[in-house]
Amino acid sequence: MSSGPQIETPATDVVPLPSETPLRKAYLSVRSVVLWIAATTLFFTVCPVLILIGAFIDPRKNDWPQRALFRNVVRFAGARLEVRRSPGFDPARTCFLVSNHVNLFDPFVLYSSIPQFFRGLELESHFRIPVYGWLMKRFGNVPVPDSGRPADLKRMWRLTRTALDSGISLLVFPEGGRTKTGRVNEFEEGPFRMALQFGAPIVPVSIVGSFEFNRKTNWMLRPAKIVVYLHDVIETAGLDKRDAAKLSERVHEIVAAPVNAHMAHMTHAHMDNPRGGGQPAPAARGEASR
């Protein structure tokens, strides 16, 4: 089976921010403050309403308000969004969605982009964040324990099994944290062991261009186009836990390919025009859906 859009490009160092005049920096700072206020105000205003609705209506039967909120948070933050689906992507398959992790907007970007009902495996500490944590708990995200206590791990596996058996796909960020360079960090094997244990297929997902929009080491929200690649489904049937490392490497290669190609393109564009920063790399093979 084809593994989705493949772009063979060597990884590059972190893409530098374009050179900017003091006036441009002042403009971007003011713009970022306004956009942060707009996006967070929207989120924290609408979230309590969704929590209240969720107390009476199964979120799975009333998914559109959540998608509308997340899509508008991305829009209010100033990012443009495009989705590209590989021919072998099947939105009807219950699966593990495996994505790179760039910034705090990733869940909003992905929930706006993936055309199927899914929830996420999320650090348990996130469930203690006011409003956001309450929303994630009510909507059925699976807490990943901060400790390795057997009871907590068993609970995570039980909730994961329940979600998959209910036809709910699960999103995971196997890097274990946000990238500081823009490149896709090494994947942890845990999610792949789970996929093999449960016999669930995997869909690699690449978020491209989001590092220029916002990065962990900088609070600014810069004008950017984010492209989400939904790659071909990878079957796990016939594999066992001994294949976890190879499966992790295979998925990492697929997720990283368009990211590396974009970073190489942006680096070359920056070298040619330090003030401009360049345009996004040409899209990989796939169907543009937004």
Summarize the structure in words.
With 290 residues, the protein is an alpha/beta fold. The chain has one domain: Glycerol-3-phosphate (1)-acyltransferase, CATH 3.40.1130. The chain is 41% helix and 14% strand. An eight-stranded mixed β-sheet has the order 4-3-5-2-6-7-1-8, sandwiched between helices. α1 packs antiparallel against α2 and α6 crosses α8. The two termini are 26 Å apart. The N terminus and C terminus are likely disordered.
Named at the architecture level, the CATH assignment is 3-Layer(aba) Sandwich
Number of strands: 8
Return residue spans where pLDDT drops below 50 for at least 5 consecutive residues. Answer: 1-12, 284-290
Briefly note the CATH topology name: Glycerol-3-phosphate (1)-acyltransferase
Q: Please, what is the average pLDDT? A: 86
Number of helices: 8
Helical fraction: 40-55%
The side-by-side strand order for the widest beta sheet comes to: 4-3-5-2-6-7-1-8
Given helix and strand content, the structural type is: alpha/beta
Give a quick rundown of the structure:
The protein is α/β, with parallel strands linked by helices and 290 residues long.
